[in-house]
Design brief:
flavoprotein; alpha+beta; 2 domains; FAD/NAD(P)-binding domain; Amino_oxidase; FAD/NAD-bd_sf; Pyridine nucleotide-disulfide oxidoreductase domain-containing protein 2; FAD; 11 helices; five-stranded antiparallel beta sheet
Length: about 350
């Protein structure tokens, strides 16, 4: 249990709770849930520019990272077709993957197919079911994809000024504006309480909020004097109590709760808001193809990691269909902006390609 680990090393409850957020981020779990300690480890392993456990902002926004990968790929001869939805993996008579079929009917032939879509989309929607073992299909159907995350993107006309560290007179970003700010995280009990409400299918009344202001480090993201604020919040269940839909009223009610919480820490925040974009779990699934809105393509619990991700006997990026590989977050080692699953899958695919 994460709580036991933190109690062993730390005394300060706010510090323990702040660390605990990385043990539950993106997970329908509380700091007291068995296995939550691994999720914390997952988020602090690795390094950035030689600094162990460090995270960073991408200059130009997260899309700039995708563009950098795309530029590198095209420099090596790759052809990229954006806005071309795939509707099926094309199989030959021998059962091997031979390419993909696009929604407009175009067939793209290839000796290998790598999918960074979720295991659910890859194997339950894009692959002919009669070509897959039934026990494998059942396993993919049973993957826990519950997500507690609602993401809120906000444009503001000034920096938030926190009671604990008021803004400077010149309005310039201070050190705390340039890192991750955790709100409603004074104790692990608060996090557990927020989680408990979601297990009863009610959005948290005092949600866990991770607030970042990327424009404080990258001014090009917003007009002069204005800023963009990213709110990663939980817990919000995918399905609300009584089957209530996540309609505009429910979305705005939850966002108002989040903004009221921020207002208590930074008076004037609500008045600074120009516009907000609310993405609940169903929105994340519909827009980005994340099953259940899960940012990791499936829970990072111990029964869904390592040799069991996405299914026992298929944790090595190969699938039951020869020539079809899984290279997204649903494969080992799971989610995070690190590219490990893609790199590992590429190595396996290259090994097989040389044999062909």
């Amino acid at each position: 249990l994460l709580g036991q680990i933190l109690d062993h090393w730390f005394e300060s409850e706010p510090l323990k709770a702040t660390l605990a957020t990385d043990a539950v981020i993106g997970a329908m779990a509380s700091p007291h849930t068995p296995g939550s300690g691994y999720v914390l480890l997952h988020h602090v392993m690795g390094e950035l520019e030689g600094r162990r456990g460090a995270w960073g902002y991408v200059a130009g926004g997260m899309g700039a990272l995708s563009q950098a990968i795309a530029c590198s790929a095209t420099a090596w001869g790759a052809h990229i077709f954006a806005e071309k939805a795939v509707c099926q993996v094309l199989l030959g008579r021998d059962g091997r993957a031979q390419g993909v079929v696009l929604q407009d009917g175009t067939e793209v032939r290839s000796k290998l197919v790598l999918s960074n879509a979720s295991p659910q989309i890859t194997f339950l929607e894009l692959t002919p079911q009669d070509q897959l073992p039934q026990d494998f299909v059942q396993r993919i159907r049973q993957v826990d994809t519950r997500s507690p995350v609602t993401k809120i993107n906000v444009a503001v006309d000034r920096l938030p000024s926190f009671l604990a560290a008021p803004n400077a007179r010149d309005g310039q970003p201070l050190p705390h504006h340039q890192c991750s700010i955790h709100l409603n995280c004074e104790s692990t009990h608060l996090l557990h309480q927020a989680f408990t409400e979601a297990t009863h299918r009610h959005p948290s009344s005092r949600p866990m909020i991770e607030l970042c202001i990327p424009s404080a480090l990258d001014p090009g993201l917003a007009p002069r004097g204005c800023h963009v604020v990213s709110l990663f919040t939980q817990y919000t269940p995918s399905v609300l109590a009584g089957g209530q839909p996540w309609d505009e009223q429910a979305r705005n009610a939850y966002a108002d709760t989040v903004f009221d919480c921020i207002e208590a820490y930074a008076p004037g925040f609500k008045a600074s808001v120009i516009v907000r974009d609310i993405l609940t779990p169903p929105d994340l699934e519909r827009i980005f193809g994340l099953p259940g809105g899960n940012i990791f393509h499936g829970g990072m619990s111990l029964d869904q990691l390592y040799f069991a991700r996405p299914a026992p006997s298929y944790s090595g990026y190969r699938s039951p269909v020869p020539g079809l590989y899984l290279c997204g977050s649903g494969a080992h080692p799971g989610g995070g902006v690190m590219g490990a699953a893609g790199r590992n899958a590429a190595r396996v695919a290259l090994e097989d390609f040389r044999r062909l």
